[in-house]
Amino acid sequence: MKFSLTLILFSLIFFITSCATVPAEKNYQLKLNLNPSTSIQNKEIILETLLKSNLQLSLRFEDENSYLLQDDLFNSNLRYFCNSFLDDQRDILELALFKRSSNNTLIVYTEEFEESASILKKKYPNELYLKINKDTYEKDIIEILNIDLSIELFSEIKNLDKNIEVMHSPRSRKDILKIYFISNYDIGKTIVPLFRSYSSDIDFYATSTIFHDANNIKKLIDFENTYIPFSENLIKNISEKDVTFIKEEIQKSLISDFLTVENIYQNNLFSQNIDLVSSNSKIRKNNCIKRDLKLWEVSTVSY
């Protein structure tokens, strides 16, 4: 299928307009002007999505006035949307973490996301910040949570009378109520369970970036009970597919939403109740679309 899509793509580039003869359930035509500078991967997703639709299609990939679809779907504003997919997630997390209460959140980030952490530091300077070093991360985690003090206190008590058996589980500091992880999957799957082992009573938060490179919903067990702004319906759909990376299915959902909104605008379908894939969103004419993402508490039990 991949090869055939690529072949179709390059054929379409040489023709200004190409019409599909897929039967249409409704009497309207969808026309899309797409800038060819978008990635081949995005074009293939567009074609794959449209070929499954029941629409009469007219596609033009070479048009200097066409809309530029950025390669990075996660961090770019798709047409008619207020923010990027990840910015919508970040806004929801900032509201939950900093706007309603403050001075009790630990932001844990990696070098890859240092710029994001720097922005947060300027906005919320009184929160705690920990940059993860891959060589010393376990020591750094123990230190930031004051676990070493808990162990030291236990040792002192134990030394008072070696004949007394004392049960002890290291406990973290009590002034940290929430932890916000800004990390990719490779590091996240290592540090989140480690934090959880020391701080079971702290709420964890992250964007979906932390699991984008996982290849199975079951792999999200490393992030069990972490709060992520994400559509539970989309998670369910992804769980039913054999995927290489979860992020590829999310990208498909974003492209699908982009095409759906184009269809609504170009064919004046605002009166119809048409659902998006990536979120619950209301589509109103002349208003940008803000994704209505709920905080999903990660659970792999149902998958």
Topology:
Elements: H1 2-14, E1 18-20, E2 29-33, H2 40-51, E3 56-60, H3 85-99, E4 105-109, H4 114-123, E5 128-131, H5 137-144, H6 147-160, E6 178-182, H7 185-198, E7 203-206, E8 227-229, H8 232-239, H9 246-266, E9 295-297
Parallel strand pairs: 2-3, 4-5, 4-6, 6-7
Antiparallel strand pairs: 1-3, 8-9
Helix pairs in contact: 1-2, 2-9, 5-7
Describe the structure in your own words.
The structure is a single chain. The protein is of the alpha/beta class. It folds into 2 domains: 1-71, no CATH class; 74-303, no CATH class. 38% of the residues lie in helices and 12% in strands. The protein contains 9 helices and 9 strands. It has helices spanning 2-14, 40-51, 85-99, 114-123, 137-144, 147-160, 185-198, 232-239, 246-266, and strands at 18-20, 29-33, 56-60, 105-109, 128-131, 178-182, 203-206, 227-229, 295-297. A 4-stranded parallel beta sheet has the order 5-4-6-7, sandwiched between helices. Strands 1-3-2 form a 3-stranded mixed beta sheet. A two-stranded antiparallel sheet has the order 8-9. It starts with a helix and ends in a 6-residue tail after the last strand.
